[in-house]
Design a protein that fits this description.
- By secondary structure, this protein is α/β, with parallel strands linked by helices.
- It has helices spanning 10-18, 120-128, and strands at 6-7, 27-30, 50-52, 69-73, 89-92, 117-118.
- It has 2 helices and 6 strands.
């Protein structure tokens, strides 16, 4: 399926989210000096979006990430509890590729994780380093 996405900057997403907007269906953004590290984006709707930024320590609890495409994404210590990941394509990047210490974790407690595609080699690496899928 060829999805047409609206391109926005990370800074614009954060500004609009801070103003109360949570519906960002079908957006695309990549590279930012900070990425989304440490941001609270709980309850955000990023379904059908393409996200290629650094996302360590991000709070995506209760987020709609259905059919999201995340190539080369670092989710160390991300909170994905109660997030909807159905149909998501996650290509997770090991921490060492970004010069970060290994041993991170992400929590998917209560989340929906019927993902359609995952980069298995990278995912296995990430699980070995502390992903919690309970």
């Amino acid at each position: 399926m060829n999805v047409k996405r609206q391109s926005i900057t990370v800074e614009e997403l954060l500004r609009r989210y801070a103003a109360g907007e949570k519906n960002f269906v079908g957006i695309e953004f990549s590279y930012s000096d900070k990425g989304l590290r440490g941001c609270n984006l709980s309850g955000i709707n990023l379904s059908d979006s393409k996200i290629a930024v650094y996302m360590a320590d991000v709070n995506l609890s209760g987020a709609d990430l259905s059919r999201v495409y995340m190539p080369q994404t670092n989710l160390d210590r991300a909170n994905l509890s109660s997030a909807n990941l159905s149909g998501a394509i996650l290509c997770l990047v090991p921490s060492l590729r970004l010069g970060m210490p290994m041993g991170g974790s992400a929590s998917l407690a209560g989340g929906s994780a019927a993902m359609s595609s995952i980069s298995s080699q990278r995912l296995e690496t990430r699980f070995e380093k502390g992903f919690n899928l309970s």
